[in-house]
Design goal:
The structure holds 2 protein chains of 2 kinds.
Chain A (H helix, E strand, L loop, with lengths): L1 H22 L5 H15 L17
Chain B lengths: L1 H24 L7 H23 L2 E3 L5 E3 L7 H28 L6 H14 L6 E4 L2 E4 L1
Antiparallel strand pairs in B: 1-2, 3-4
Helix pairs in contact in B: 2-3, 3-4
The chains are: A mainly alpha, B mainly alpha.
Amino acid sequence: MRHTLRLSLLAAMLAVSTACVTINIYFPAAAAEKAADRIIDEVWQLREGAAAQPANGERQ
Amino acid sequence: MKIHAMLRAALAALFLAFAGVAAAQGNLEINTPAITALQQSMQQRHAQLAPLYASGAVGLARDGTVALRDASSVPLAQRGQINGLIAAENADRAALYREIARANGHPEWEADVRATFAQRWIDRAQPGWWVQGGGGWVKK
């Protein structure tokens, strides 16, 4: 009886800890910065040759 | 049969964990139709916003948005149009931050994505543009 209780407690703890590892992954700051720079390049037309693209279909 | 189901569940959990690790170490996914569309919409609007950044009427705010900084530098007749531009830009930006977080399987990253963009917009603003620092607006 006590064994079953201890075992199920252990299983529950294990499940919770693995769930935490899966969910609470750190925000990848360096990757996000790279992604931001790539998008900013596009939006502000900062890359070489990007300015040559025609902007058709005006939206607002 | 029961073992198969358990094995499948374990495999799925493993995949999820690896997907998270891959996202944490490699690049963020930004090549989705929604993100591309927002990017194009913002790129087209930039032609209208760039002179407003240069004149100081509109500045880059700390929270990853654009803001009307100096309304007096804009003729009264144009203020409505400029407010519309700012609202449209900020709507696209909010959607962009949300979509990037969601495309990478972590909607809770939205605020972090926003903060990262806010910093990069300001860092990469052109000389003469106004950006919002800790102590208020400054001209780059």
